[in-house]
Amino acid sequence: MPIATSQIDAALQWRYAVKAFDPSRSIDPETWACLENSLVQSPSSYGLQPWKFLLITDPALRAQLRPHSWNQSQITDCSHLVVFLLRRKIELGDVDRLIAATSAARGLAPEQLGFYRELILKDLVNGPRSQEIERWSSNQVYIALGTFMAAAALLEVDTCPIEGFSPLEYDRILELETSPYRSCVVCAAGYRDASDKYANLAKVRYPASELIESR
Questions:
Q1: 212/186 Cα distance (integer angstroms)
Q2: Is residue 182 within 8 Å of residue 85, measured between CB atoms?
Q3: Counting beta carbons within 10 angstroms of the beta carbon of residue 77, is it exposed (0 to 12), middle (13 to 18) or buried (19 or more)?
Q4: Distance CA 173, CA 68 (A)
Q5: What pLDDT is stored for residue 134 in this prediction?
Q6: Which of 72, 122, 124, 208 could form a disulfide with 90 if both were Cys (CB 3.0 to 4.6 A apart)?
Q7: What is the domain extent for residue 126?
């Protein structure tokens, strides 16, 4: 049975970018498992999933990251901190991994996916877009971020997407400098603190009549 439209509307109206988390409240394991699954289930172009998601649980590590995040308290006070990583390059091995996984999941011989494999290679490995893969990967990561935040809102878990951080410093601290992945965006998740004045501010959104056109 589909979720009621009123529930979705209410969840999206309820959510906001939390500025102050309650550090005493934690997301329970069952809820977090659902949120992790929202990341796993996120769509991506070609299904390539050019990302990884780092869950930062170590308080000392979070304390190291906070100064490189405009000293935002969400970094240390949230229940779960996720660093969304993008894939720096798409290579032959990445494509063959996808083809192998698709073959296994759908009961196909890899040869049956030969056309699809060549299509990806011509586009992202050998084609013009191979020169701008980080931008392409970043676009995919933001799809995952949106999926995660929407799922969180439906579960009444608060989030705050964070672009105000230094990716270079994060990569250094998280030892990603020689990794195939690098920091792209951060999202804090948990529960709003009662003192957060932003929780009760009216949302500012332009009307649908100005944003959506039919042709």
A1: 29
A2: yes
A3: buried
A4: 10
A5: 98
A6: 124
A7: 5-211
CATH of the domain at 190: 3.40.109.10
- The count of other CB atoms within 10 Å of the CB of residue 40 is 10
Q: Which residue has tokens 């977090």?
A: 32
Helix (H) or strand (E) holding 83: strand 80-87
Beta bridge partners of 170: none
- Whole-Å CA distances, 203 to 57, 86, 150: 31, 31, 17
Q: Label residue 72 exposed, middle or buried (CB < 10 Å: 0-12, 13-18, 19+).
A: buried
pTM: predicted TM-score of the whole model, two decimal places: 0.97
Q: Mean pLDDT by 10-residue block, N- to C-terminus, for the chain (215 residues)?
A: 95 98 98 98 98 98 98 98 98 98 98 98 96 98 98 98 98 98 98 97 97 97
Residue type (1 letter), 125? V
Strand partners, 82: 55, 187
